Fold this protein.
Amino acid sequence: MDTPVVAHDRSELAGVLPEAGVRSAVVMTMGALHEGHRALMRAARAAVSPDGVVIVTIFVNPLQFGPGEDFERYPRTPDADVATCADEGVDVIFAPRRDDLYPQGEPQVTVDPGPLGRELEGAVRPGHFGGVLTVVAKLLNLTRPAYAFFGEKDYQQLTLIRRMAADLEMPAEIIGVPTVREPDGLALSSRNRYLSADERRVGVSLSRALLAGADAGPSGGAAVLAAARSVLDRHPELDVDYLELRAPNLEAVAGPGAARLLVAARIGATRLIDNLEVQLSR
Ligand code: PAF
């Protein structure tokens, strides 16, 4: 197991980026790495082959947290993260300091996520996706990968990053990786560690609601939403922000075929999101 090179600023990064012609892939993270991140790293390695370069970025991006959100308490586990990256054969870790990524403080020019950025998560977390897309654009420009991997767990984020790359002619290919789940179905998230044992038991109802919805797919969209809602309603501890059925590109759902069921809820002080593909027969 080789230890990855750790670059703490953009000049160190520039010194370890691969030469032209060597394929590279980036996995962007905020650290607190878990099995879901490992799946992204493995997908990245498979895409670039053993000769290519896998880069993991670790940066808790202040721009994507709103006032009163968990920026300060977001888990930071740098030593464990380096060990995880080493275990997965990552070549380069880019873990910049805040003043290296934002040398002039808050950027004056940012990426506007468009109308979808103000729906679903964006309606509950104003400004969130502008912060996400701005840092993703900066990290793509700094790392210049052929491929960038993101988890489907943050499905709206993945959709918006794809749209940004297409609309702004960004050369990296954006690739989504399926959500990794605990054996009982809970989607892996760095925020799961905030949950008490009781909250953890309630948290699994999000994925159960999505599965109940997916089972109702043959009966159509209204049945999907009703089945999912009936699971959520059994848990008064859940404060549901939204439960929505959308087309795979997150536009309004239209007719039979694949759709995406998305849920977000608070349990105590913790906010969880999840989503699942649903096949609608009508
Ligand atoms: O999904 C995340 O961890 C973050 O939103 C990302 C993509 C690393 C940007 O800060």
